[in-house]
């Protein structure tokens, strides 16, 4: 695919709902940090949503979650994405399922298309405060 698409932001959220008929997107429970009950964490699920433009043709989208301190990958998924024309905005919604975080700290959620960085977002992971 050429050229590399441009991302119009990236959101992390609990749910993404795409309305049938209108195609409108509703992002529910957007966040930039997660609290987990224990570490390593139990499997976590969340959605990554972005809108992409200026792409053309078909490409391979790689979504990764990696530790910011070491660069080690904790999750990776791939899907094919189609761009009908350079002027079309393409909605990319991907459910990240069964992601296990080994330690508290900062993680980087990255979207690459055809091995070119398109967008990224920092996710802070912390232990959940326990009631006394």
Written overview of the protein:
This protein is mainly β. It has one domain: Sandwich (Immunoglobulin-like). Helix content is 0%, strand content 66%. It is built from no helices and nine strands. The protein has strands at 6-18, 25-31, 33-36, 44-53, 57-67, 73-83, 90-99, 105-113, 116-127. The strands form two sheets. A five-stranded mixed beta sheet has the order 3-9-8-5-6, with no helix packed on it. A four-stranded antiparallel beta sheet has the order 2-1-4-7, with no helix packed on it. A hairpin with a 5-residue loop joins β5 and β6 (73-83). The protein is globular and about 50 Å long. The model has no long low-confidence stretch (mean pLDDT 93).
Give a short summary of the structure.
This protein has 132 residues and is mostly beta strands. The chain contains no helices and 9 strands.
Provide the descriptors you would attach to this structure in a database record.
132 residues, mainly beta, Immunoglobulin-like, five-stranded mixed β-sheet, four-stranded antiparallel β-sheet, 0% helix, globular
Mean pLDDT: 93
CATH class: Mainly Beta
**Secondary structure: helix percent:** under 10%
Kindly report the CATH topology. Immunoglobulin-like
First CA to last CA: what distance? 55 Å
Query: How would you describe the shape?
Result: globular
